[in-house]
């Protein structure tokens, strides 16, 4: 399953946004309002839960200085990645788009497509408010 958010402009340079997204504790500030739990587990891993959804643990999997940050599921039960692609606009602004990639059976895919799409769109909108 592949889901992409619309790109948004962020009032941070490409390097500033890359550094922001590379620090997992910063994700708390861009989480949706319906987040019921957020906990930093290590320097590269955090757990969160949205109301009505199970807890998810994400960890920093890859960083490509200054244009890509990849987070992935810490568990192999439901393997997926969440990638932030960052492009410079000028010296003080950048553009970011989030993409979700995961392999799920058809039933699971139908159940999670809507909530995942809403989740990554909200993250992107909240990044635009930084």
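-> sequence recovered:
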């Amino acid at each position: 399953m592949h889901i992409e958010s619309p790109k948004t402009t962020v009032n941070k340079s490409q390097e500033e946004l890359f550094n922001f997204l590379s620090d997992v504790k910063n994700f708390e500030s861009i989480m949706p309002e319906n987040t019921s739990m957020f906990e930093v587990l290590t320097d590269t891993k955090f757990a969160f839960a949205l109301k009505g959804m199970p807890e998810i643990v994400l960890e920093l999997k890859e960083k490509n200085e200054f244009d890509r940050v990849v987070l992935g599921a810490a568990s192999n039960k439901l393997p997926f990645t969440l990638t932030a692609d960052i492009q410079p606009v000028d010296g003080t602004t950048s553009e970011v788009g989030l993409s979700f990639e995961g392999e799920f059976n058809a039933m699971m895919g139908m159940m999670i497509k809507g909530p995942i799409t809403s989740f990554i769109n909200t993250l992107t909108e909240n990044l635009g408010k930084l």
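The chain has a mean pLDDT of 93.
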